[in-house]
Amino acid sequence: MYLTEVSTWDMVKKLYRYKLNSYFGVFTSLVIIQILSILFSLNGTGSSGGSSDTFEYNMNIYSGTLILAFMMGWAFLVATLITTKAYRYDDSSFVSNRTASHFSNILFLFSASIIAGITVYFSYHLFLSVVSLFMKVRVVQADTLTPIQLAQGITASVLYIFLFTSLGYLTGMLVQVQKFFVFVLPALFIGALIIDGNLSDEPRLLISLGSFYGLETSFIVFVFKTLLTTGALYGVSILVSRRVEVRP
Amino acid sequence: MNVVEFTNVSKKYGKSNAVSKLSFTLAENKITGLIGRNGAGKTTLLKMMAGYVKPSSGNITVFSKDPFDNLQVSANRIFIDHQMSFSPLLTLKELLITAGRFYANWDSELAWRLFDYFSLNPDQNHAQLSKGMKSTFNMIIGLAAHCPLTIFDEPTSGMDAAVRKDFYRALLKDYLNHPRTIILSSHLVSEIEDLLEDILLINDGEKYLHLSVEELREYAVGVSGNASAIKELAQQHSLIHQKDMGSGRMYAVMKTEGAAKQALDQTRKLGLELTPVAVDDLCMHVTSKSQGGIDSVFN
């Protein structure tokens, strides 16, 4: 019987196609989380008001930030989930090696991030409609975006979500290598926040981390910053996973 | 050409050795049975061959390559066991179609004919199947993939007797149509004996013997008769197994090799009876921990 030669990229594509079918639950959870996040957003993110003798006004600020934040959490969890044994062993039932498996996972998570990023935009508009139709609001003032701003907004959402998949993937992989990371990672995270809070009067860690990406004014630089971080996190995950056996 | 080569391979889990200093080769287009007791290291050996597990020391080549995490090896071998996991969201039909995309030699017609024969439901999920049905489905994938190296680890676990028989028959027929290297682990030697060409017997993670089935049938001989005559004979031969039959009689299994063979012929003069030893009995005797068998526990 002759031997078959296969290319890694070919197998990555086949695994990716398999994953689009078999990880369908990921997209079901996306819909549920977005509906939940719309409900939570109906509270508004801020409000102000005032009154005088003759009139009174109320201003509510609604934003889609909460929807995006929920999607980041979702992205983190989905990425962690697909590093678990149940998902990794599925790959080993067919032709694969770890490299092909990782790249097909990354490709899948990137696709999921794109879908999530676009639907965040749609959800935001659904949410605005819900607000204006059902919330007894007299006047709605929403920002109008140029097509370029819109594209940039969606791209930014996709990149943020993709960044969180890489964070989740690394977390998941570390836990697969050593179970004690389940306790160590949250402890490190919370410990760092506490130390940060004790060292200075004002906690800075999360804020400066957030503003490193969030306050970047140049779109191109932002794209580079997020993609480089994402790439680095995935790179570390792949290196870390060499310590796990394929299927013990 | 040797498809598989193990040289001094050991695998440690913690402090215990699952496989130690194992060396053997598998020639192209042969069916080999991997026989051993529970915990002998069969699964570990096969997982190393499939490239799932890395040996602690020693060297393994499959198609002249290191199989661990190797995509080329993965494309040319298939590993079938009861732990095979498939997405719970795909139906059996979708799984067969998916398997067809991955394996270059996939025989779709055979897969569907077997699928119908064993009356599996194409709309069912793998997770909903009973243990025996899972094994049946996995076996169909293993056969239809037509991989140059096909590895079955306890493929019949959970199958009923009729399905087991059908499986062995299907394996043999498909092997004749598409010769390839097949290794099959089992502890039911009597069932697969007729199917196999070679037997690789391992015990406590070490190779005990690797012989053709014909050679194994003549490997040992059973002697029964007067206990004292047998004990005397046993001093010249390697004794594999002995059993007290009561009233001064005993049964012993001795190796028949070289000059010893002629000596055994003389036993007839001593009034001892010689009987052939079935392959499965032999495998059981040589891997037995104590010479007296389970009886020794109760004596």
Summarize the helices and strands and which ones pair or pack.
The complex is a heterodimer of chains A (248) and B (299).
Chain A: H1 8-22, H2 25-41, E1 46-51, E2 56-61, H3 65-81, H4 85-92, H5 98-134, H6 147-177, H7 181-199, H8 205-214, H9 219-240
Antiparallel strand pairs in A: 1-2
Chain B: E1 2-13, E2 16-27, E3 31-35, H1 42-50, E4 57-62, H2 71-76, E5 77-80, H3 92-102, H4 108-117, H5 131-144, E6 149-153, H6 161-177, E7 181-186, H7 189-192, E8 198-203, E9 206-212, H8 213-217, E10 220-226, H9 227-234, E11 239-246, E12 249-255, H10 259-265, E13 273-276, H11 279-286, H12 295-298
Parallel strand pairs in B: 3-7, 3-8, 5-6, 6-7
Antiparallel strand pairs in B: 1-2, 1-4, 8-9, 10-12, 10-13, 11-12
Please give a structural write-up.
The complex is a heterodimer of chains A (248) and B (299). Chain A is globular and about 90 Å long. Chain A has 248 residues and is mostly helical. Chain A has a two-stranded antiparallel sheet with strand order 1-2. Chain A has one domain (8-43, 58-177, 216-243). Chain A has helices at 8-22, 25-41, 65-81, 85-92, 98-134, 147-177, 181-199, 205-214, 219-240; strands spanning 46-51, 56-61. Chain A starts with 7 loop residues before the first helix and ends in an 8-residue tail after the last helix. Chain B is of the alpha/beta class and 299 residues long. Chain B folds into 2 domains: 2-215, 3-Layer(aba) Sandwich (Rossmann fold); 218-298, 2-Layer Sandwich (Alpha-Beta Plaits), CATH 3.30.70.240. Helix content of chain B is 34%, strand content 30%. Chain B contains 12 helices and 13 strands.
